[in-house]
Amino acid sequence: SLTRRIDRPIVLVGLMGAGKSTVGRRLAKRLGLPFVDSDHEIARAAGLSAAEVFEKFGEKEFRDGERRVVARLVDEEPRVIATGGGAFLDEGTRKLLDEKTVTVWLDAPVEVLAERTGRRDTRPLLREGDREKVLAELDAKRRPVYEQAHLRIVSNEQAHGVVVESIISALE
Ligand code: S3P
Predict the structure, then answer these.
(1) Which of 105, 85, 106, 87 is nearest to 96 (CA)?
(2) Alpha-carbon distance 73 to 25, whole Å?
(3) Interface pTM (ipTM) of the complex?
(4) What is the CATH number for 74?
(5) Rounded distance, CA 66 to CA 84, Å?
(6) Sign of torsion, CA 132 37 28 77?
(7) How many domains does the chain have?
(8) Are the beta carbons of 88 and 94 closer than 8 angstroms?
(9) Most buried of 57, 65, 108, 168 (most Cβ within 10 A)?
(10) What does each C-alpha distance from 54 to 20, 79, 87, 122, 154 come to in angstroms?
């Protein structure tokens, strides 16, 4: 079976609102693998929410913590990992992921990102200014980096289940 052939972590990367956590959880369930969210692990280690860590200690400290968390997770049993949107932008984290995991970029249109991130106010990077404009700028800047992921999967308005099946086909 596919599950038996999966010998490395599957890591979802992409912008905030692309569906990394939701799709990741469902993908893990479908494959019978554990699921873990790197933002959640940072929060657990710090005893604060990921947003609080980001705001209190700044982006640099947050990325350092994120890199340590990712380094630990990739050496454990194969699983599905959802990363924070900026994790793959860090050179050290990206190198680790490239060498030890299968990276899947969830590529979603900016309007979809804006709609999904508008439901809850949990992203420090989106607290100020026009959300759609900020996301469009991040998308333009980060796209060339996300393009370095091993797989690109379009994550638009379609149901998360469809995205999960596209990932599974791409892994086969
Ligand atoms: C960030 C994305 C967030 C979180 C932090 C920074 C980013 O994660 O890690 O606020 O730089 O794109 P999500 O992509 O899970 O929202």
Answers:
(1) 87
(2) 16
(3) 0.95
(4) 3.40.50.300
(5) 8
(6) positive
(7) 1
(8) yes
(9) 108
(10) 19, 25, 13, 11, 28
What whole-number distance in Å separates Cα of residue 11 and Cα of residue 138?
20
Distance from the alpha carbon of residue 158 to the mean position of ligand 1, in angstroms: 22
> Is any atom of ligand 1 closer than 6 Å to the C-beta of 151?
no
Return the pLDDT at 68.
Answer: 96
User: Measured between alpha carbons, how far is 26 from 164 in angstroms, rounded to an integer?
Assistant: 7
State the residue range of the domain holding 102: 2-171
Structure tokens at 18: 């692309």
User: Residue with the nearest Cα to atom 16 of ligand 1?
Assistant: 16
* Closest residue by Cα to residue 68 from 49, 105, 33, 96: 96
Which ligand 1 atom sits nearest the alpha carbon of residue 42?
9
Ligand 1 atom 15: the closest Cα is on which residue? 84
Determine the average pLDDT of the residues in 45-71. Answer: 95
Residue-averaged pLDDT of the chain = 95
- Convert the pLDDT of each residue in 9-47 to its tens digit: 999 999 999 999 999 999 999 999 999 999 999 999 999
**CA-CA distance, 105 to 167, in Å (whole number)?**
10
Indicate whether residue 84 lines ligand 1 (CB < 6 A): yes
What is the per-residue pLDDT across 86-96, written as a single tens digit (0 to 9) for each? 999 999 999 99
